[in-house]
Amino acid sequence: MSSPNENPVGDETFDYNDRYGITRKRSWILPAAIFAIIGIPWTIWAALDHSQPELSSKLYSFSITGEREITMRYAIERRDPDAVVLCTLVTLDFDKNIVGQIDDRIEGGESTVERIVAIPARLPPVSARIVSCRIS
Predict the structure, then answer these.
(1) How much is the pTM?
(2) What per-residue confidence (pLDDT) applies to 121?
(3) Which parts of the chain span the membrane according to its record (predicted)?
(4) Alpha-carbon torsion 110, 112, 117, 119, what sign?
(5) What is the CATH number of the domain that holds 99?
(6) How many domains, the chain?
(7) 115 and 73 in contact (C-beta within 8 Å)?
């Protein structure tokens, strides 16, 4: 007795896909090729560009130097050493309200600059932070 997949007439195995005209679809190949051609170089470019930001800042420490003053030590790194940078620094009270704010202007010169800045406050401060640094 023959199995249902065997062709009793010849040596070939019987295939329902051939009999009913069903073909394998390879519609994913074109989108995959387009993604590979466009997507992979874009991903590499984006990773390299964003791994080296134009400007970054780091807060090292702060200390309360008076009843209404905090001294902050921070650093910036900029890709263009000649760019002028403006950093907004704030002091906060116990409830995290802003009690003091200054804009520290850093002239061009070196790519990495470390600063120590005194920030006056209208109430006794307990902490300080860098709100933003931007190239002006």
Answers:
(1) 0.66
(2) 95
(3) 28-48
(4) positive
(5) 2.60.40
(6) 1
(7) yes
Cβ atoms 119, 100 nearer than 8 A = yes
pLDDT digits (tens, 9 = 90+) for 2-49: 555 555 555 578 888 778 877 777 788 889 999 999 999 999 999 988
36 located within any domain: no
Residue 82 lies in a domain: yes
52: its two tokens:
């080296």
In the chain, which residue ranges form alpha helices assigned H by DSSP?
16-20, 29-34, 40-51
pLDDT for residue 8 = 55
CA dist list (Å): 19 to 2, 22, 76, 112? 19, 8, 72, 73
The boundaries of the domain holding residue 116 are: 55-135
In a domain, 120, yes or no: yes
Question: Which is more confidently placed, 12 or 107?
Answer: 107
